[in-house]
From TrEMBL:
Listed PANTHER family: THIOL:DISULFIDE INTERCHANGE PROTEIN DSBC, THIOL:DISULFIDE INTERCHANGE PROTEIN DSBC-RELATED
Residue ranges of domain Disulphide bond isomerase DsbC/G N-terminal in the record: 40-85
UniProt source species: Pseudidiomarina indica
Keyword RNA-binding recorded: no
GO CC terms, sorted: periplasmic space
Classification via InterPro entries: DiS-bond_Isoase_DsbC/G (IPR033954), DiS-bond_isomerase_DsbC/G_N (IPR018950), DiS-bond_isomerase_DsbC/G_N_sf (IPR009094), Thiol:disulfide_interchange (IPR051470), Thioredoxin-like_fold (IPR012336), Thioredoxin-like_sf (IPR036249)
Protein name: Thiol:disulfide interchange protein
CDD domains: DsbA_DsbC_DsbG
Domain Thioredoxin-like fold span(s) in chain numbering: 116-234
Keyword match Signal: yes
Subcellular location as annotated: Periplasm
Family assignment from sequence similarity: Belongs to the thioredoxin family. DsbC subfamily.
Taxonomy of the source species: Bacteria, Pseudomonadati, Pseudomonadota, Gammaproteobacteria, Alteromonadales
């Protein structure tokens, strides 16, 4: 069986003194208490049973967490089903379902490069200052020729207050968004038009999806591939998804 490596799993527990070492995990989703998550600045979007008894599967604006049913213990990491021939990340399946459902909320605010003979659609979180984003964009004709429609979302790597965010707002407010995005990725000037742009919404969605850098490619199934992916490799990934 393929070797399973689980890296970067962290467990955060509320502080306890020696007299309270045993912490109850009893409870149910009906009386799930989100007050501690709220105090930490987390906004709960959905709560479901997790694959492990005693834990709830909680979707927040920062992604997927596992929380005890009494709301007092929190774990960040992946749960794997290891009963089959290969380990399966149940956490990835939950995240994929969340992403696929949320893609509908931004379908009208993307910048789309549509394949003439569309076979697949991918959503790409992009930043025009990112070298690998530029490399992906330079190969746009190859993606389109393979039947891959690309729908861009804005994800400024330096946050919502930097020059990257300002430039992305200008792109999304341009009369010709495709031409403006191409120009921005080539360090050409873009008009400084203003509008009700979706940059904040896209950035928040990327955080929820677990985007940590650009480009980040999301399939319609919700599967996410971080980083630049060559067109020939991407079509294989899509066909096998």
């Amino acid at each position: 069986m393929k070797r399973l490596a689980i890296l970067g799993v962290s467990v955060l527990l509320t502080a306890c003194n020696p007299s309270t070492q045993e912490t109850s995990t009893t409870g149910s989703l009906e009386n799930f208490d989100a007050q501690h998550l709220t105090r930490m600045g987390l906004s709960v979007k959905a709560v479901k049973p997790s694959p492990i008894d005693g834990l709830a599967e909680v979707i927040t604006q920062q992604g997927l967490l596992y929380v005890s049913l009494d709301g007092k213990q929190l774990m960040s990491g992946h749960i794997y089903d290891i009963s089959g021939q290969e380990p399966v990340s149940l956490s990835d399946l939950a995240l994929n379902a969340m992403r696929a459902a949320d893609l509908d909320s931004i379908s009208e605010s993307v910048i789309e490069f549509k394949a003439p003979r569309e076979k697949h659609v991918v959503y790409v979180f992009t930043d025009n200052t990112c070298g690998y984003c530029r490399q992906l964009h330079e190969r746009m004709d190859e993606y389109l020729a393979l039947g891959i429609t690309v729908r861009y979302l804005a994800w400024p790597r330096t946050g919502l207050q930097g020059d990257g965010a300002r430039q992305l707002r200008q792109v999304w407010c341009a009369e010709d968004q495709q031409a403006a995005l191409t120009a921005a990725k080539q360090d050409q000037p873009v008009s400084s038009a203003r509008c009700e742009d979706p940059v904040n919404q896209h950035f928040a969605l990327g955080q929820k999806f677990g985007v940590r850098g650009t480009p980040a490619i999301v399939f319609e199934s919700g599967k996410m591939l971080p980083g630049y992916v060559h067109p020939e490799r991407l079509i294989v990934e899509l066909e096998n998804d």
